[in-house]
Write a structure and sequence with these properties.
CATH class of the largest domain: Mainly Alpha
Strand content: 5-15%
Shape: elongated
Number of domains: 2
CATH superfamily of the largest domain: Alpha-helical ferredoxin
Bound molecules: FE3-S4 cluster
Largest sheet: 5 strands, mixed
Strand order of the largest sheet: 2-1-5-3-4
CATH topology of the largest domain: Fumarate Reductase Iron-sulfur Protein, Chain B, domain 2
Length: 244
Amino acid sequence: MPIDMNEVTFKVFRFDPEKDKKPHWQRYRVALRPGLSVLEGLLDILDHQDGSLAFRFSCRGAVCGICAMYIAGTPRLACRTQVAELKREEITIAPLPGLPIIKDLVVDMKPFFAKYEQIRPYFLADAVPGEKESLQTPQQRRALAEYIDCFLCGLCHAACPVAATDRRYLGPAALVKAYRFIADSRDGHTDARLALALGEDGLWRCHTIFNCVEVCPRGVDPTHAIQEMKRLAVWRRLAGKTRP
Ligand code: F3S
C-alpha cells in the first residue's frame, strides 16, 4: 500500500440469513490514520457508514479473543491486526471458516465449544483435595503456563486444514486444553485424559501441519502439546499402562 494513500478499502463478507438468499461482498472506504487496526476500521464503518454490519468485539486489546475473523486470507484478531502492516489497498474480511454463520462476520461458536467440552476442561472430581491447598512448585506451574494462556479465540481451529475437512476432529484448541490438564501436577488423571484425546477424532488426526502455531495470538504451541500427548500415549502403551 503506497504511503501517501489516505484511504483503504474494506471488502466485507455480508450475509443476513433472514434476508439474503446468498452471501455477497460489500466494499467500504475507510480513512487511514496512524495505528488504525482492522477492528477500528470496522467500528468506523459501523458508526459512520453502515449500522447494519454485524461483528463481535469486546476488549479491543487482544485479551479476550472475541474479534477473531478471516482477514486478508488468514485467521487473525481484528483488534491486533494493523491495517498498515497488511500493505494492501483492499482488505478482505470474512467470518472464521468452518463454523455456521449467524450474520455477516459473526459465527456460531457452539460446534467449537462442543469439542472443548469433550475433553472435560476442568479438574476431575477427585483430583483436588477437598480442604487442603493443592500446592505447586514454580517449575510445575511453568509447565502449564503456556497452555493456560490459550483464550479459545478459535484462530488455530480455523487455520487447521484437518479441522476444515473433518468436522469431527477435536482440533488444536481442544487438544491444547487436554494437555493443559495432563501437564498440571494437581490433576493426576493422565490415562483418563489421554483416553478422551485419543479417540478416532483426536490426537492421531493431527498431521503436524503447524498452521495452528503460526496464527496463535498468544504464542501457544498446539503442535507441541499434541506431539507430547502422542509421545505419552505411546510410552504408556509400551509400558502396559493403558488399555489396548
Ligand atoms: Fe492442525 Fe495444528 Fe495439527 S494445524 S494438523 S492441529 S499441527
